[in-house]
Structure formats: C-alpha cells, structure tokens
Amino acid sequence: MKKPVLVIMAAGMGSRYGGQKQIDPVDEYGNIIMDFSIYDAKEAGFEKAVFIIKKENEEAFRAAIGDRIGNYIETAYAYQDLDNIPEGYTVPEGRVKPWGTGHAILSCAGVVDGPFAVINADDYYGKEAFRQVFQYLSHHKDDDKYRFAMVGYRIENTLTENGTVARGICETDSEGMLKTVTERTSIERRDGVIVYEEEGEGPQEIPEGTYVSMNLWGFSAGIFPELKKQFSRFLETALRENPLKGEFYIPSAVGRLLEEGKATVRLLPTHDRWFGVTYKEDKAAVTAAIKELKKKGLYPERLWET
Predict the structure, then answer these.
(1) Residue 198 and which of 77, 87, 274, 297 are 20 to 30 A apart at CA?
(2) Are 6 and 151 in contact (CB under 8 A)?
(3) Which pLDDT tens digit goes with each residue over 184-208?
C-alpha cells in the first residue's frame, strides 16, 4: 500500500481576506499557517506535500514555503488552471475565479497516484486531525466501494469573532459514517447561540457539538476518475446558469458518490480548535494563538531548525 501524501489547496484568491493570505506570516520568524500544517503532517507520518497553486504564483510560493521546507519533506506542485477543462467546453469571457475545490483536486491527478489527505492552505487544523487521517489512510483501502474519510470539527471550535463563516454541517449514521454535508452560510454566535441565516429565512440554531467539515478529507486515487466525470456534468449546468462564479465543490462531489452508493466516508472527530484568516482582522488572533501553542510546547520556537 502506498504511503499517504498531503495535498494542500492554495490556488484560491481569498476574496474576503484580500491578497495572498496563504503566504502571510503568522509569527516573527516568517512562518505561515501552512508551515504549521506541514509540521503537524510530518509529525503524523506524511513524507510528501503537494501544493495546488496557480502557475503565476509559483515563484512566490516557492519563496514563501516550498524552498524553506524542501530539506524536511518532499514537495511537488500541481497547477489549477482555469483553462484545464474538458474538450468541447470553453472558459466564459470574463471568468477569473477558479473552478472550485473539486477542480483543484482534479488538478493533481497526474502528481498523486495513491492515498492522500487534502487541506486548505489558510486553515489551522491541529495535530490530532493529521494523526487521525494518516492512520485511516494507512490502514484502509478501496474494495467494492471507495473508502474515504473526513475530519469533523465541533462547530463551536470553528468560529471567528470578526464576521460570519460558511461551514458544511455533517450528518452521520449510528456507526459514525457520513450521510450528508449541507453547506450553511452566514454562521455566527449571536447572543450566546450559534445560528445561520439563509436568504429569506430567519436565524436557525446549530447546536453546539454539531460536527462540520473544514475540508480535511482522506481520499484514494479512485476519486480522480469520479471527479472527472462529475466536473463535465457540473460544467453543463454552470456554464448556462452561473458562468462567472459557479464552483465545483468537494462536498458536492462526495455527496453524489454517497447517493450513488459508490463510496463511504468515515467521520474522524477531533476536539482541536480550528483557526484561520478568513478576514484581515483574524490575523492578530491567529498570531496570538500560535504564540500560545508554542508556549505550551506544541511547537518549537523555530519550526524548521534542528
């Protein structure tokens, strides 16, 4: 069985934050959130990291992290290109937004050929998450179905004080297998209660302890041909209904495989706290959290110095 690799989605534009938030330092040594994710992943057993980026950002990414960590973990690059779409389709005039997380994963099909975990570049996931997903991928392989996994976070551990967030609300069966992931937007804590709002509806409560997806998935290489088929179907609708902003998301793709009975997804629960830079104002809180984690001994003062 091939050793799992870590795939990092870093091609998004970060519209709510502005600029290249993925390479914005969060400590005085120039480390970025990805440094801590990769450090945790290496500690868990991962030996290779694959960055999914825009080709035009490669020089900046290599300078920000790739060249710095090359002596500690094997690195590779995959490129999420707007023009990388199936034959017979064309990119709509004026489209600049990437095609979404499902397309990002599809972009590394030629680089990854075994089990892999996938994360967002600008989210901090915690050590437990990487240990769990590495162990799962190391001991489970596809049989008559794809045997995937997803790390689930308690909703109260994934909020920011600086605005609303979007989260995938998870429903599981009695054995801890994922049934559905429902995307909810405009989530925040209001008067001590976690709520979400959809257009035309009033606030709806989300109970504390509810598990949500933060896009930390564990996949086999079997996901690639399935994503390829689904992406073509997605384009049929998106190019007609939302040509400039339609996105092909991982949860939607996985949800379809669950509906078709082609896959199972084990929810791996973690009590670690997420943090990230959804908004510019989040950076101070992230910097403070990193400092506190170092103080507790979870990380050395200088990550990559032996």
Answers:
(1) 274
(2) no
(3) 889 999 999 999 988 778 899 999 9
**φ, ψ for residue 299, nearest 5 deg:** -140, 150
Cross-strand partners of 270: 153
> How is 26-49 classified by DSSP, letter by letter?
-STT---HHHHHHHHHHHHT--EE
Q: How many helices (H) and strands (E) does the chain have?
A: 8, 13
Q: Is the pLDDT of residue 70 over 90?
A: no
Q: In this predicted structure, which of 66-75, 132-141, 238-247 has the lowest mean pLDDT? A: 66-75
Q: Where are the beta strands (DSSP E) in the chain?
A: 5-9, 48-53, 74-79, 116-120, 123-124, 146-154, 165-172, 178-190, 193-196, 204-205, 211-219, 263-270, 275-276
CA distance between the termini of the chain = 31
Taking CA atoms, 43 is separated from 28, 106, 222, 232, 238, in Å, by 22, 27, 26, 38, 40
For each of the domains in the chain, give its residue range(s) and CATH number, in order of start.
5-152+213-295 (3.90.550.10)
- In whole angstroms, how large is the CA radius of gyration of the chain? 19
71: amino acid identity, one letter: N
Q: Report d(CA 3, CA 137) in Å as an integer.
A: 8
Specify the 3-state DSSP secondary structure of 24: coil
Residues composing the chain: 306
Instruction: With 0.85 as the threshold, say if the pTM is over it.
Output: yes
Is residue 249 within 8 A of residue 181, CB to CB? The reply is: no
Q: How far is CA 89 from the centre of its chain?
A: 27
Residue 208, both tokens: 């504390």
